[in-house]
Amino acid sequence: MASLTTSISGVGVAAISRAMRVIEVFADRPKGVALTRLSAELGYGKATLSKVLATMERGRFVRRDTVTGHFHLSCRLLALAFAYAERVGIPGLCAPILQALADETGELVQLAVVEEGSVLFVAKAEGPDHRLRMVPLVGAVAPLHATASGKVWLASLSEAAATAALTQQGLARLAPRTITSRARLLAQLRGIRAQGYAIVDEELVAGGRAVAVPVIRGDGVVGSVAVSGPTFRVPVHKLHRMAPQLKRAAVELAAVWPHEVTARDFGLGVRVRRDNDRPRAPRRHA
Length: 286
Known about the structure:
Number of domains: 2
Shape: elongated
Largest sheet: 5 strands, antiparallel
Distance between the termini: 53 Å
CATH architecture of the largest domain: 2-Layer Sandwich
Order of helices and strands: HHHEEHEEEHHHEEEHE
Helix content: 40-55%
CATH superfamily of the largest domain: GAF domain
Number of strands: 9
CATH topology of the largest domain: Beta-Lactamase
CATH class of the largest domain: Alpha Beta
Structural class: alpha+beta
């Protein structure tokens, strides 16, 4: 009996896996796809796929065009997805992705959005408990020249636009290693464009480092996701190793990102940091 249960369970999981792969293919085929093409693309036999598609069609998750014979995703599947997204909102969609990254890296994860020429921190997730944690910046506007999130957005701009943004904000010294030379920062942005992520090393606050990658939707950067931690726990080489993890999270965030997101979607009133404000150092926990 035990082996029969295991066998049935294995078949069930395989069938679900095939159905999920079919849905992924449909997502890239707005005009639908024929059974023969689907079989060749996925490497499944036509008989197997016919059963999967017939089951999905009975459940109204796919539909078949009677003229072309092509299969399409159904409106029911889209309706379920939209209903879920509307109920949980963008914070609910982003939270599991941020928490997974925090659990994976063990450090503070923060999400920022780009809104009217500013980078605003809107959400956070924290990894396993440490005696020393970075202070979240949720609700604050990022100093573009001193945060990894600010830098990845600047790097998405033309050099002229980045220069204009820096001229408007200024390059105040906020920490021991803040870059206050416009020429040096613009040169650094060229490297960030090439590698696809930015690192700050005690540029916002003494004793803190961070790495960020852009959240890209369409042709533009709509936000960023960053991991930060104290210098004794996150050497620079560790931040470089984290970059692929952040890039995967950014792709997941982009997949659930609505057309336009603002701080208000996260229930936040934004606190604009003035030049004479000082970021707080990492806080200790008893």
